[in-house]
Each structure stands twice: as structure tokens, then as C-alpha cells.
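**Paired protein data**
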Amino acid sequence: MNPAATTKVQVLCTNGLKSVFAALDHALPAKAGAPVVTSFGSTKAFTDRIAGGDVPDVALLSDSAIDTLIGLGKLAGKRIDVAKSYIGVAVRKGTKHPDISTPDAFIRMLQTAPSISRSRQGMSGLHMVELLERLGLTEKLAPKIKVYDGYAAQACADGEVEIAIQQISELMPVAGLEIVGPLPAELQKVTMFSAGLGNGTGVRAQGEALIAFVRSQTDVLRANGLEPI
């Protein structure tokens, strides 16, 4: 029996690529040459987990997180960039789209929206914390901003909040949402999602094949709100 056929490729992947993996799920084992087991979560949570010693065969996180983990010796080789991700705004399907076309319009939206959701540890949520601080709006908007672990988009679709701000790739797959658009360029944070191989992985070739396949699926990446490299 071919050992690769029974050896699993363990993957820790950012939520920003979850919809891409869902679209490619049927093809991943064949392309990797082994079964693929993927866990999804925030870049920050997985960075802490890997830094603590729980090293997967493949990590797909932000570029800075991959660089950090390579520097710590947890991931081996060079960082492999996969796709760019943009933060966007969404509303519940059928509701009015606010004007977010300029920085001033986006700020007015923040100030007038009854309620807004963001992620707690995702790259978009961390950016919003920094952005509100920069704009001097942290205290003023604190009562209306709801923070969620993996539920920020769904909270808007379910009517719990009026506005969701998250990675566009995380907003797009949620039924009941409509994408208003990306944050204005001046307030945007572009995240590069990148891959790295676990130091000491026994399925290096399979991991490399998996990364190469995901990276090559430009149509799927674009369809899920990402910009291929």
C-alpha cells in the first residue's frame, strides 16, 4: 500500500479561505495525493497555537503570521503567497446599501448605523480596532459595535446587527447578505493570505501539491472575493 494514501495532510487555515476550501473540497485529496483534514479559525488563534508547539503539515494564514512562524522555526522553507483579501461591508439582503464610496462617507456610515458587527480575532476585526482608534471613534462607537467569534457575518444576515464589516471572502458565502463593497482605499487593509509547511512534516510533497493547487485556482479565488497572485 502506498503510505501517502493513508497519511493525512493536517491543515490549519484562516477563515478567510474557508469558502475556497469548501469549493475545492472534492478535489483536494486527489490533488494532494493524500486525505486532507482542515481546521478553520482566525490567524491570531492559529499563530498562537502553532507557536505553542501544535504544528500542522500546512498553515494558511496572513503573510506576517507565516513569516513570524518561519522565524520561530515552526514552519520551514519560504513563504508561499496565495491570494490578496480585502475588507468589506455587507447588509442584510433587501435592506438599503449605505454610501461607503469615500472615507468621509464610510465614517458617516459608522456613526449613523444602529449596530455593526466585526470579528474578534480575525484580521478584519483587528484592523477595525486600529482604524477606530486612528479616527478617534473608539469610545463613541463602542456601544454599537458587536464583537463575534466566527459569527460576525451571520449576525447581520440574522438581523442581529445592521452592518457587518469583515473580509469579503467571509461575507460572500453567507446566505442572506448583500455586499455593499470594499472599504475605501485610504481606510482599507489588504491582507495577503500565504502558506507555509510545518517544520518536520512527513508529507512535504503532498503539502506542496495542496498549496500549489489552491494557489492555481484563480477562478475559484476570484469567485470567493479574493485576488489571485
